Write the structure tokens for this entry.
Amino acid sequence: MKNWMMATLPAGAMLAAGLMALPATAQAPAAPQGGCFRGQLDEGYCDNDRNLVADTPEAARQRDPSTLVFTYTPVEDPALYASQFRPFVDHLTRCTGKRTVYFQVTSNAAQVEAMRSGRLHVAGFSTGPTAFAVNLAGAVPFAVKGGPDGFESYRVVMLVRADSPYRTLADLKGRRVAHTSATSNSGNLAPRAFFPGLGLKPDEDYRVLYSGGHDRSVMGVNAGDYDAAPVASDVYSRMVARGQVRGDNFRVIWESDPFPTSSFAMAHDLRPELQEKIRQCFLEYRFPEAMARDLGGNDRFWPATYAEQWAPVRAVADAVNAPYTRAAFDEESRKELEAEARRNAARTQTQSGGVHNVPQAAGAAGGGAAAPAPARQP
């Protein structure tokens, strides 16, 4: 099978454009005093150096926590990542001299709100949610995973069953296609940006069903619940490598140009010396063999910036008029929470002997839906 996940880009290369359930009302940081250029950032953050991320505030508002809280995007089962990142969490404890703990989050919204409210200090955000985290939570991306030759990228791939008659995007007209969630870059926004130009309009030419996640989309195609699904190639490849699905059961009928994978970001208001130490701890670390295997062969972190590496992601959002604003975040969060409630109800019905599977239509209960909450996924 073609190794979709391990497409890498030279470090610094510009891509082409193409701890707990937290309340949605978490308080924003106090508004800064004096002159403040915000750009796309929410109130409470300044970008006076025009690099698209929040500036470190004055000394009185900087933080130096005794315990660092770290987490990774829940694009798959959160328990998997808690185990996979354990060696790195131990490394952060030794390297920073501060106790570091891993906290599992079950939604991208909870992850963004955790950093916004000050409860999360360092995190791996998936591709789309990175922009929400930057604009709404003061996250400052500084690294991405990669290998010896450069950082990891992924592609959007359209999966169908290998025994299906579908061989081109045009073959999917009138079919059931799973998108992951309203906020996902690869699972929703990129397809909506790219497919119309290729003669296939989501919602018009095919019925969009929100699965709630990339792994759920893959499993749904495998089971025949969906005819096709656009998913992140790195998630799909990991599922094949772990034996969750067989690669020869699928056919890829379309793929995009590369996108960056998860960003690793820190809170903007950490003391500058601590920020620099965290950055150093990331960049000097080499993944142990088991961790590298679990993370697709990546063995290190590469430096990255939001302004450069996330330019194509912002371009996709602009193309489909999906701004990374608080209003958009709250609306998508509401839709996704409603979708999760419907999935839980369907799961309960299944466990009691009811229907096998009830995918969620895009128009149900107000429009989009998916995982427990928002923030754009890979």
About this structure: Residues 1-28, 355-361, 363-378 have pLDDT under 50 and may be disordered. The radius of gyration is 20 Å. The first strand starts at residue 8 and ends at 9. The chain has two domains: 8-152+260-315, 156-256+325-366.
